[in-house]
Write a structure and sequence with these properties.
It holds the Pfam family BPD_transp_1. The structure is a single chain. The chain is mainly alpha-helical. The chain has one domain (about 25-55, about 85-295): MetI-like fold. The protein contains 14 helices and no strands. It has helices at about 1-15, 20-30, 30-50, 50-55, 85-120, 125-140, 140-155, 160-170, 175-185, 190-195, 200-240, 250-255, 260-265, 265-295. Helix 2 (about 20-30) packs across helix 14 (about 265-295) and helix 3 (about 30-50) packs across helix 14 (about 265-295). The protein is globular. The two termini are about 25 Å apart.
Amino acid sequence: MVNVTADSNKSQEKTINMSPWAIARRKFLRNKLAMISSFFLLTVIIISFLAPFITTADISKVNIMQMTLEPSGDHWLGTDKSGRDVFTRLLYGGRVSLLVGMACTALVVLFGTIVGSIAGFYGGIVDSALMRFTDFVLNFPFLVFVIVLSAIFRGYVDGLTILIVVISLLSWGGVARIVRSKILAEKENEYILASVSIGCKPSKVIIKHLLPNVLSTIIVQSTILFAGLIVAESGLSYLGFGVPQTIPSWGNMLSASQESDVLANKPWIWMPPAIILTITILSINFIGEGLKDAFNPKSNR
């Protein structure tokens, strides 16, 4: 009994001496569901980006002699209505969908963090102006504006690029609000007031003192955004307003299920992208929950 108590005390002392990031890392590594999800997501990312080395089939060549073939040794997941290998398109489609999600998440977090940090630090008129602009962006009907703007600019800019830019420009408002609220609370601490009083530049205070202390919140929000933006791309591509049809993506592959014959009698065409998309989104959400618990000082997990 004495030994158990002593071990418990040693464990508590060790935890107290650890940095918040070290504690968060240890808690995340102990979360089995989050670790399994991380392994799965990492595997999907690696396999998708190594697609050219895994399969040599043409992703766009139409072969009318091999249309809608069932899964076999030559075509592991069968072929689609144009005779293209489903497995090959699944790998390349994952690369596109994940790339769009990552790029949009990076742009959204960057822009939202800049706006939220400036608004929270300066307050007053600057805060009011930036937050009213943020409200204006948040009030846009997301789906309608993405479709309209994509249609307008598609003839002038690469379809994939314009999709990333438009989604990013309409999705940063939530991040800006979260970062602003954290900055407003953090800037009242004494070390921030001391930095300002000795004449530190606002940019230095924000970058060196404020942002590191709200970084955990930004990381958790990024994982949630990543999942949501992949879904947004897939939904838009499914409707025909996302990734151009000439470029395979999970959403484009799912658009084949709009035909009742394919939906009812040819499940190998749409089920692989549907399953991998669902599991990927669940994995990202589980990772987000794991990070949220890891950064929560009140969590014992």
